[in-house]
Design brief:
By secondary structure, this protein is mainly α. The protein has one domain. It is 64% helix and 0% strand. It has helices spanning 3-10, 15-31, 38-44, 49-58, 62-84, 90-100, 124-131. Helix 2 (15-31) runs parallel beside helix 5 (62-84) and helix 5 runs antiparallel to helix 6 (90-100). The longest helix has 23 residues, at 62-84.
Length: 132
């Protein structure tokens, strides 16, 4: 096979073709309100979920990024909304949001400094009770 032919086959998913596919995923998600995952949309359209991720990694293109973001935002909003009203399994929604949408629980951290004494401040009403 000649070198030119190799490139021809390697470019099956051009930016334009990728955008057509990604827009079809977005359209599917918009129309099918019960679809809760990118996987579900891709499978319904006859493709593997990996294609969605592959195209995002393959092309360094702002339009591809925006198209992927729109689809992910629909899924994220649905998961949060349905979990809030107990319309889905909350544990599963949390799992998907953490693993596929970069969400995480807040972690509070308490910092103490050595060599500084703790001072308790009482409300004003407590001080006046002592004077009585």
């Amino acid at each position: 096979m000649e070198e030119g032919q190799n490139r021809k086959y390697a470019e099956k998913w051009t930016v334009e073709k990728s955008l057509v596919f990604l827009d079809s995923v977005y359209s599917y998600l918009k129309k099918n309100k019960t679809c809760m995952t990118i996987v579900g949309a891709c499978v319904a359209l006859g493709h593997y979920e990996e294609l969605f991720t592959y195209l995002g990694n393959k092309h360094d293109d702002e339009n591809i990024f925006k198209s992927i973001r729109k689809s992910k935002d629909i899924v994220k909003a649905r998961l949060i909304g349905k979990a809030l009203f107990n319309e889905t399994n909350s544990a599963m929604s949390i799992f998907v949001l953490k693993n596929n949408h970069g969400m995480h629980e807040k972690v509070q951290q308490e910092t103490t400094l050595k060599g500084i004494r703790e001072i308790s401040i009482l409300p004003a009403s407590a001080d006046t009770d002592k004077d009585k």
